[in-house]
Amino acid sequence: MSQPAVSSETCSIPCNLCGSRSVDVVSLLDRDRKPLRTVVCRECGLVWSDPRPVDARHFYEHEYRVQFKGAFNPKPKHVYRGGLVAINRYEKIRSYLRGRSALVDIGSGAGEFLYLMTRVGLEGVGIEPNLGYGDYSRDEYGIKVLPGFAQDHKFADASFDIITMWHVLEHTEDPFRNIMLVKRWLKPDGLLVVEVPNVEATCLAPIHRFHIDHLYNFNQANLAAIGQKAGLRCAEVRLSHDNGNLTAFYLEKGDPPRQDCRIPGNYERISAAIRAHTPLMHYAQIYPYQRFAGRMRRIVEEARAVRKFSGGRRCLDELFAQVLAPR
Q1: Helix, coil or strand: residue 229
Q2: What is the phi/psi pair of residue 12, to 5°?
Q3: What is the chain's alpha carbon radius of gyration, rounded to the nearest angstrom?
Q4: Environment class of residue 219 by beta-carbon count within 10 Å: exposed (0-12), middle (13-18) or buried (19+)?
Q5: Residue 8, C-beta contacts closer than 8 angstroms, at least 6 positions apart
Q6: Which of 59, 155, 221, 273 is 20 to 30 Å from 243 by CA-CA measure?
Q7: Is residue 210 over pLDDT 50?
Q8: Is 91 exposed, middle or buried (0-12, 13-18, 19+ CB in 10 A)?
Q9: Crossing angle, helix 112-119 and helix 131-141, to 10 degrees?
Q10: Is 176 helix (H, G, I), strand (E, B) or coil?
Q11: Which residues contact 314 (CB under 8 A, 6 or more apart)?
Q12: Mind listing the pLDDT tens digit for each residue in 228-286?
């Protein structure tokens, strides 16, 4: 079934960035070809699911990991994979760590990144809504992980030097409210790191662009703007090598909040990118086949690697050894 042409519509949920209700429909299907109405704001280009496809609290506490990972607790291959991702994330923020020590990782998952941060000397705490993954990370690594969502916890203002939200913001029902909440926890000159999928990405097949667990979708311009709306200074938004992810670095610099969050031309840019990324265009490139071959290699490497370890901690300790070695 093909994706529908972009069409002018109204929405039940106003734009979380600029407040507009003027939208176009960009998709009516999720990646499993089930109904999912996705709209794009005509004023700023923010993209979201309208109406909401899930009860977010129940879904992320009980269903999300089982549905997308096939397990309530992480399997050995997930730990190994998560360890490699943790190293990559550490390298992304490494240049920002000097002089910063207290960290909260929101959506800490199975705990690999948070465990690495504690190993490099930071004082870290995680927040994880999924009960199985949260329990595993506490028991296996001895790290501090609080259950629930960010809004369930009360930290004193200016408690943390660094706050990380790796692939979390797109899952929230109110991204701006979540950024405003965690901004209060930042110390002066603190750092907020937010990574999300790039709605303009072409590394995945077009049908995989939208799914029920991603309530919001961003590009570089509106990801920068949502932090600026909260009064944060956007130091940079990095695009991953495959253009699939965006990583924003916001600084608590006391900038005045951005008042006008309209982004001229951004709606047109995103709409054009989505429409241009057709199945024919996608599979006419060599990249999908290179990606598939790389995935098969990683599966073999993971299977070989996890046979050596009796537990998650041993696996991560060996993976992190090179990162932790004196330079």
Answers
A1: helix
A2: -90, -20
A3: 20
A4: buried
A5: 23, 24
A6: 59
A7: yes
A8: exposed
A9: 30
A10: helix
A11: none
A12: 999 999 999 999 999 999 999 999 987 899 999 999 999 999 999 999 999 999 999 89
